[in-house]
Amino acid sequence: MSRLPHILFASMMALAVTPSISFAVDNDLKDIRPDINKNEWQLVKNDTTRNIKTYIREVDGKRINFKVDAMIDGDLATVARVHFDVDNIKHWFWETLDSRLLKKVSSTEYYYYMQYNAPVTMPDRDAILHAVVEPYTAKKGYMQLTINAVPDYLPVQANLVRVQAQDMTVKFTPMGKDKVHIAAEGFVDPGGIAPTWAMNFVQRNAPYSTMLGLQRRVNMAAHMPLNEPLPFAYME
């Protein structure tokens, strides 16, 4: 995936390309195993090479639940710039067809739009998201991004299903000068009718793929001239 969140994490997070039937059945069988406590976080991905761990769990009323623990190569300013560059989130976030800034409220608050690719048998999804930035301070030691879906912010489009919840917190902790630890947790309600296999596939794969996309985008940004100031405050 070459296109969060954003939490994180996206994230984080809408619907995905259709997996094979055998993959879907295998995951559904795993879901009904009696030895799994669905209310507790279950480790799904443990990529020790890239320092990415992702988890899932089931909670009533929260249809896709995810947690991410990842280490990104790059400094905090670059990681923040990638997240704040809303119009280009579509180039690294999981199955995102469109992303654009809707309104800048202040240097620490904004609204933005995202549209997601769904399987061919299902309508695509879109989401209106409200983001609040808690800038980094030396005392705190991290920057935090809190994202909540606001489905009624814009009218629903006839050919799309509006995501009802895409709520997450993403904490960015600098680890020296060239690494950032990302801890993200959240849940997604994609709205409409979503088959079990699709929900399973998304929550197992979207957070991990999004972290891979984020790392690629950070690598690209690190080699570009960054003359313009960040649109939002990442540090007090």
CATH architecture: 2-Layer Sandwich
Taken as a percent bin, the fraction of beta residues is 35-45%
* Tally of alpha and pi helices: 3
Just give the CATH class. Answer: Alpha Beta
How many strand elements? 10
How is this structure best described in words?
Residues 1-24 form the signal peptide. Keywords: Signal. This is START domain-containing protein. The chain has a single domain, classed as START domain (Alpha-D-Glucose-1,6-Bisphosphate, Chain A, domain 4), CATH 3.30.530.20. Strands 1, 2, 3, 4, 5, 6, 7, 8, 9 and 10 form a ten-stranded mixed sheet that branches. Helix 2 crosses helix 3. The protein is α+β, with helices and mostly antiparallel strands. The relative contact order is 0.28. It starts with 20 loop residues before the first helix and ends in a 14-residue tail after the last helix. The protein is globular. The chain is built from three helices and ten strands.
